[in-house]
Amino acid sequence: MASAPVEVAICILHQTDQFLMQLRDNDPKILYPGYWGLFGGHIEAGESPEVAVVREVLEEISYQLPSYEKFGIYGDEKVVRHVFHAPLNVGLEQLVLGEGWDMGLLAIEQIRSGTHYSSIAQQARPVGPIHQTILSDFYAQYRSLS
């Protein structure tokens, strides 16, 4: 019998037409190891997606979301992604990467190219296909993010 999909809350953090992406740890036990993706994570038992996204972003980059809105839900057989968006009102130097291998601000063209170079990994790493889809959809709906 197939298990129910895992539910996660993820956040599109945007700043002047760029998106903050996380280079996921290169751990084969996680989904999309070594891929660029959005910040967020599992929704804990009894937790709402709204509470989870705030908690996850704080845990992963020590950033308190100033405000956020729901963008949509993207699901497949393994994961249901509750997607939110919020402005990133600080510079990268003010963030503390608590989870993941690297982070960076990427323009939509870089995301759509399918890879992005990480100076920490010292190589180009792939962008998660679902994250490319989500960000392309978001960009089509909200062209001016500044």
Topology, number of strands:
9
- What is the percent of helical residues? 10-25%
- State the helix count: 3
Uncertain segments: none
Average of the residue pLDDT scores = 94
Largest sheet, in brief, is: 7 strands, mixed
Q: What is the count of distinct domains?
A: 1
Distance between the termini: 47 Å
What is the CATH-assigned architecture?
Alpha-Beta Complex
At CATH level 3, the topology is: Nucleoside Triphosphate Pyrophosphohydrolase
What is shown here, in short?
The protein is α+β, with helices and mostly antiparallel strands.
Question: What does this entry look like structurally?
Answer:
This protein is of the alpha+beta class and 146 residues long. The chain has one domain: Nucleoside Triphosphate Pyrophosphohydrolase (Alpha-Beta Complex). It contains three helices and nine strands. The strands form two sheets. Strands 1, 2, 3, 4, 5, 6 and 7 form a seven-stranded mixed beta sheet that branches. The N and C termini lie far apart (47 Å).
Topology diagram in text:
Blueprint: E1 6-15, E2 18-23, E3 36-37, E4 39-42, H1 49-61, E5 69-75, E6 79-87, E7 102-107, H2 108-113, E8 115-118, E9 123-126, H3 129-141
Parallel strand pairs: 1-6
Antiparallel strand pairs: 1-2, 1-4, 2-3, 2-7, 5-6, 8-9
Features:
146 residues; Nucleoside Triphosphate Pyrophosphohydrolase; 7-stranded mixed sheet; globular; NUDIX hydrolase; hydrolase activity; NUDIX_hydrolase_dom; NUDIX_hydrolase-like_dom_sf; hydrolase
